Amino acid sequence: xxxxxxxxxxxxxxxxxxxxxxxxxxxxxxxxxxxxxxxxxxxxxxxxxxxxxxxxxxxxxxxxxxxxxxxxxxxxxxxxxxxxxxxxxxxxxxxxxxxxxxxxxx
Amino acid sequence: xxxxxxxxxxxxxxxxxxxxxxxxxxxxxxxxxxxxxxxxxxxxxxxxxxxxxxxxxxxxxxxxxxxxxxxxxxxxxxxxxxxxxxxxxxxxxxxxxxxxxxx
Lengths: 106, 103
What we know:
The complex is a heterodimer of chains A (106) and B (103). Chain A has 106 residues and is an alpha+beta fold. Chain A has helices spanning 3-13, 19-38, 84-92; strands at residues 43-45, 49-56, 59-62, 69-72, 75-82. Chain A is extended, with a radius of gyration of 19 Å. Chain A starts with a helix and ends in a 14-residue tail after the last helix. Chain B contains three helices and five strands, in the order ααβββββα. Chain B has helices at residues 7-18, 22-40, 87-102, and strands spanning 46-48, 52-59, 62-65, 72-75, 78-85. In chain B, α1 (7-18) packs across α2 (22-40). The interface between A and B is large, with 64 and 63 residues.
């Protein structure tokens, strides 16, 4: 499922808001989460999961072309921990739903 | 670190910024997360460009151990969700890391 499919499915589920309204709501939600994370805050959605930042120490990497060492600074990367309900529902589905890769999903 | 962002905060933002009434805002936030779960529980991975991808992975059974007692217990086969942040999200978060490093 892509963002535009998500918007389409949400629009079908209710009758009051237009697709345009839903599209802008989805963008607002994603931007709100991005903003929280980029301010160093967590996002916590019960039954879905939580997003937080994980610290990565500085390290010496290599330029894959020249093989030269490059010092890489410390950084933060976004991390998602699925919530209990999410874990259970996804695990249950392993018996009857094969995983559909992104590119084949319609 | 400030309090974590919650669904209530998101609904409030939709009310203030997008002009949805409070009930609509709350419903949309609820449905947004439910729709992603529904997709994932039917084996359909989720791709939200700019934000990130929710991928599914089937894990085989593997040997595990109770860390307290040292007792061996197999970890059963399972399906898990992983999140791969998109480029835009990674870049925005990197900006935060930069501001922390300067302090």
